[in-house]
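Before going further, learn to read the protein records used in this course. The integers have meaning only within a learned vocabulary of local backbone shapes. To see the layout at work, look at the sequence and tokens printed below.
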Amino acid sequence: MSLSFEASAIATARHLLYEKALVYFNHEPVGTIAAIPQKTRVYKDGRYQTVVPETDLNYTELFIRDNVPTTLFFLLDGRADIARNFLDTCLLLQSKDIYTAGIFPASFHVGPDRLTPDYGQRAIGRVASVDATLWWLILAEIYVQRTGDRDWAKQDSVQHGIRQFLRLLLHPGFREAPTLQVPDGAFMIDRPLDVWGAPLEIQVLLYGALISSASLILAGHDYDLTPDDHWRVQQSLKRAIRLRRYLLKHYWLNTRIVQVLRRRPTDLYGDSSIINEYNIRTETIPHWLQHWLGEQGGYLIGNVRTGRPDFRFFTLGNCLGAIFDLLTRKQQKSLFELMLHNHQELFAEMPLRICHPPLDNEDWRNKTGFDPKNQTWCYHNSGHWPCLFWFLVIAMMRHQDYAADVPESYAYHRLLKDGYETLLQRLPEQQWAEYFDGPTGVWIGQQARTYQTWTFTSLLLSHHLLITHPGDRDLMNLPSLRQLLCYLRPN
């Protein structure tokens, strides 16, 4: 592929980001819309007219999850001011309602003189997004780490926002498990797909948000904490430690663990020596795991529920598990071995598949509510999303820092290089589509929006990290639990 073609594609993506997707409020850039509306020609009043269709629903709003890649790219591109404006705008919209106090909006509409947030009351299915709140804490921590702007973290408004979030998370509940329970469709997979309960993506984001909250409180007080804030940091880290242990115990899977699961007794009762806590029976373990795992592969399963684990592979949750070092180094290597082993399924003609395998037949009907957008191999039901690729780029490039095996590092580099070249070749000609359908991801999604912001931003981030500035692979590094615990001193 010629350098001129690559330069042209990157220049086009930058133009779309800065000139078309960026939104201003009170003459300040505050973030990016989900997708850029495209003009079309229609026959009306006896002649053809060029109009912007009104079928974009809320794609012209600013979503917190969609602004994750754009905010990070602005930080890398020397535009930290946009990142800060976005964080401040979201903070202004943090809910103060008695029922939802502390949560951030899934999205907000920017009007001429007002901002209109959506906490789920306008969403399809009226499901509130949970990941938006968790992502804000993580983005805020990355912003402070990247810019050194601790004065921003010290602001009363920022510290109050963190306290409001922790008030939601740290109060007593009805469950002993450290995971966060959510309804179906409460995160990136925002339509019914049988992901209710404790889905992986939410748990990994919760882990990152707890660490980020503790770090931001410490930075905001120059590590000289009041007793109340000392308690908040301590409880955040305790919850993060419990959560990590829980996920590695119940969600991590490899061939050896499958063998153990298949031979565990069921219907056990009591306080101790219970080795099958969730009463998982052999019949729930799918046969496709034998080929999927291979000899060296391992991954975090999609969900743990009583008697009914979700063994599907979810790309984003696993990549974030590696990026946040929730997984050990050995487990990260197993995860990447699994992705190499299943290259044809996960990458195919368009990286990356959002989950595997899809729900089909009766499962699709019963578990998605006959949702035509989530038919087999479509949308979130094993569709292909180029916006996920940059997460894998960061995860694998971080792992290469301590990968001593040269052939292993070469295999990772080849996988990422091939994926980048696929995006570079296909995305411009496919008009930066939101997602791709089919077993190989060769078709543009039937209901996909074109000129999707996080699609062309994925190419920009991948180009920055793989081609121009590989040293920025530490962009999403969060402080380690050990590092944060050492700052705590008895008061």
